[in-house]
Amino acid sequence: MAFGWIDEQAEARRRAGLLRTLRPCPADSPLLDLASNDYLGLARHPEVTEGAAEAARRWGGGATGSRLVTGTTELHGELECELAGFCGFEAALVFSSGYAANLAAVTALAPHGSLIVSDAGNHASLIDGCRLARGATQVVAHADPEAVRKVLGTGSGPAVVVSDTVFSVDGDAAPLGELADACREFGAGLLVDDAHGLGVLGDGGRGAPYAVGLAGAPDVVATVTLSKSLGSQGGAVLGPARVIDHLVNAARTFIFDTGLAPAATGAALAALRLLRREPERAARAREVATRLHTRLTASGLEAVRPDAAVVSVRAPSPEQAVRWAADCRAAGLAVGCFRPPSVPDGISRLRLTARADLTDGQLDRAVRVIGETRP
């Protein structure tokens, strides 16, 4: 029977406690949200939603075509200019998603004959970019600059080191300064995914590259998403103008994909301008994450110290992680549940996201629920 193997795989996932299902969210959910990536609490901010609505009224519901045909509006140009300036880079290019931005950056910057050095903890979009690129990929130990240096020493052609800035599973930060030193020793480029750094790290949320003095460097390229701290949808690549020009001409997920919808573009631009006016939101997100970690570990839970806004709490097994998350939900708290194959080390976790708009009372409630429902 066609696709008969699907049933076998579904049963295997069920037995292992790894079956995933969709759960549509109502517009006015009563749950306290520690599961989304809305780090700054901007997704429902009136200025952001009005930015989306105004853009849709002016330019329509969709981009209508690829960026090179009809899918580029004046709004896209404004967002690219302001995003690059805010993060400290020379230029930016907006994509329909952060995933598409990562595929574009990796594939376009790792041609045939090049070497890609990829961190073992990288996001799936970077991993898929490495798989699609024509260069040869070497995966190195997580957050290990010496391992990167060792692999770079074996190459003879162009090379690029690929890493998240903040890893999405445990929320730990990459050693960007040391990675940049290793790259410069061997003339390699550094490509970093700042999806979880933008809006949280750096002066006023300008991102991890800005925080360590790498923003705007001629050998550094960063990708970001517009769907986390900026509360919208889409992604972007930031870097030297000649790199951005290259992507316009060579990145397949830019050339052949429909442009980002005007509403998402307008929402992201409104959120970025709001963050400029209210830079304290970034520090508040970090403060909430630190307090959440301190309270959880004080109660005896095993939680990873957050470097940004993600707090990871380890669970005994995939089945118990699912049950723990479900019990939290029944108690009015939404938390993330990460299990294999989403986690590179095979350890299941509750994944909590700190938000700048969480009150002290909500933080107390979240800690209490997590503690009371622990396996």
Give a concise summary:
The chain is α/β, with parallel strands linked by helices.
Would you kindly provide a written description of the structure presented here, covering whatever features stand out?
By secondary structure, this protein is of the alpha/beta class. The chain is 42% helix and 15% strand. It is built from 14 helices and eleven strands. It has helices at residues 4-15, 46-59, 74-87, 98-108, 124-132, 145-152, 176-186, 208-211, 241-250, 252-255, 262-277, 280-298, 318-330, 360-372; strands spanning 32-34, 91-95, 115-119, 136-140, 159-164, 189-193, 220-225, 235-239, 310-314, 333-338, 349-353. The strands form two sheets. The chain has a seven-stranded mixed β-sheet with strand order 2-8-7-6-5-3-4, sandwiched between helices. Helix 8 links the parallel strand 6 (189-193) and strand 7 (220-225). The longest helix has 19 residues, at 280-298. The radius of gyration is 21 Å and the shape is globular. The two termini are 41 Å apart.
Alpha-carbon Rg, integer: 21 Å
Strand residue content? 5-15%
State the end-to-end CA separation: 41 Å
Helical segment count: 14
Q: How many β strands by DSSP?
A: 11
Helix content: 40-55%
Q: What is the residue-averaged pLDDT?
A: 96
Lateral strand order in the biggest sheet = 2-8-7-6-5-3-4
* Spatial shape: globular
The assembly state of the depicted protein chains is single chain
Order of helices and strands: HEHHEHEHEHEHEHEEHHHHEHEEH
Low-confidence stretches: none
Biggest sheet overview = 7 strands, mixed
